[in-house]
Specification:
The protein is of the alpha+beta class and about 325 residues long. It has ten helices and 13 strands. The protein has two domains: about 140 residues, no CATH class; about 180 residues, no CATH class. Helices cover about 30% and strands about 25% of the residues. The chain starts with a helix and ends in a 24-residue tail after the last strand.
Amino acid sequence: MRSKFYDAYREAVLAGPAIDGLPPAAAAPGRANDYISLGRQQQPILLLSCASSGALKRPPIRLRNLTVEFGVRFCVRAPAGIVEDDFVVVSLCGDDLGLAEAFCLTADALVTALPTVPLASDIEKAVREFVDLLSALSLPSSRAVAGLWAELWLMSVALEPQAAIMAWHRDPNNRFDFSFGSHFVEVKATELEQRNHDFSYEQLRRSEVPVRVASLRLRRAQGGKSVADLVGTLHKRLSAELRVKLVKNVFDAIGSAVSEAAEIRFDEEFAKSNLRVITADLVPTPEIPVRSPISAIRFQVNLDDSSLHTHLQELSASAALLAPPD
């Protein structure tokens, strides 16, 4: 499932080339006076209207992937006819159309939260967040796509996705992927046949509350779901604030590998049938002697080992993030 803004962008692309110098545009979803148009290389351009456009005369913002211009007179060919007005113009830069989906996901998260008739302060806040989110796509990737996909998929099928997003870590260096009040959840994913997962001693043994490990085996499939598909699914079930957190976490994780990540798709049914859950206290660890100078250990555990088979639970995906039983 794509974002609604990406669908609108594709609508503008399918409308054909510019006629008499007027580029095609599609109405921004849920917005009466905002549009998505096209640049010279068919990159998306977001046109934001403002009740006080005169108060938005600012120097343009130019970044690697993004340009923002304030109070620009723009004329487009929309489905309802020719539209000409002063807009805040947010443009994707360059010829990498693999970023178009990320651009539209950002617009979906931020623009739909704007008031019906936004003031200059509303637009400025949205633009600042837009710049902040897209800036992450110029940084190196900090996560493997499989691990990110697994976390997103579990949230997309969770009984309470809003609670899952609220518990989702902001920093990839946090000890656990999900921090609920009553328990933690660590998600592990592999594309290999065996469930060989890396752990830290702190994850499995040094927690004041119960810890659940959700282990998924994943398989790539042309007709599967991408990271963007899962984000689009989650968008429908989240508040505006949590949509922003979702997109920010995803972009921070993917970074400059966003185009490559868009091509990777995993089979949901395979993930569902190969989901296993185990409580952390049942996962074996090396022993750290009392008063040892060793403070941290990282190691790999094969959860498919015969000694662990009886401890692996086959839970429904919707319940995988729930608190482990007493």
